[in-house]
Amino acid sequence: MNVISLRAFNDNYIWLIGNGHKAAVVDPGDAAPVLAALAERELELVAILITHHHHDHTGGVSQLLAAYPDVQVFAPAGERLPAPGAIAVQEGSRILLPELALDLTVLEVPGHTLGHIAYYGNDLLFCGDTLFSGGCGRLFEGTPEQMHHSLSRLAALPDHTRVYCAHEYTQSNLAFCHAVEPDNSRLLTYMKEVAKCRQQDVPTLPSSIECEKAINVFLRVAQPEVRAAAEMFALRELNEEHAVFAALRRWKDDF
Fold first, then answer.
1. Which residue numbers are catalytic?
2. What confidence category does residue 1 fall into, taking pLDDT thresholds of 50, 70 and 90?
3. CB distance 8 to 90 below 8 Å
4. Nearest in space to 176 (alpha carbons), one of 144, 147, 225, 134
5. Model-level pTM greater than 0.90?
6. DSSP H or E run through 170
7. Average pLDDT, the chain
8. Residue 242 burial by Cβ neighbours in a 10 Å radius (0-12, 13-18, 19+)
9. Please, is 166 exposed, middle or buried when counting C-beta atoms within 10 Å of its C-beta (0-12, 13-18, 19+)?
10. Section 171-179 average pLDDT
């Protein structure tokens, strides 16, 4: 089983999961790159996985269904479904795709949107716009408490879990992490690796849970250095982890 990045719009990634014969896609905001990849690799589309309702994650669904009318579409039960007949999934739902030997569990991770979900299984995490490498999604609908809880759930997954985010935001995210935690040696090393990837126009993803816990300040709110930096920004003492997260998110929004 291979996971291939398909670029869409300015910085979106659509993830194509294939085994040489069948394929599934995650968050196809644009059908064109998916159809081209399926044709090039001679793959049959069997499933579409949606993490949240934003158009840059769902805009290609109807065109893909026109080409592959028998495809199953899975989408969060807490948000408007992207197509008639889509299967609404929620916390604990299992998605079994035997054609791909894929067994995924749904995690509810509100924050970016209220119904946002992630798909986890086979040591893979498809997390949409909840967790980015070095960052997290903006709080368009949810609260800091919700997003902090969602990120904490993802951080508790096994370290070797590969993290497939939906945007190429890594380099700019790491610049913010460096402003918060300038003496993090692992972060400095990772910044060099990411810069090299971007110079070569190579995706920086997937990341891993282990890497994110070491460099992503939004997963490091319990670290004294991160809390101290957040308190300097907020100009007050922050006694709760979600308050540290909220200060960091406000800081990043203006960074």
1. 52, 54, 56-57, 112, 129, 167
2. confident
3. no
4. 134
5. yes
6. helix 170-180
7. 97
8. middle
9. buried
10. 98
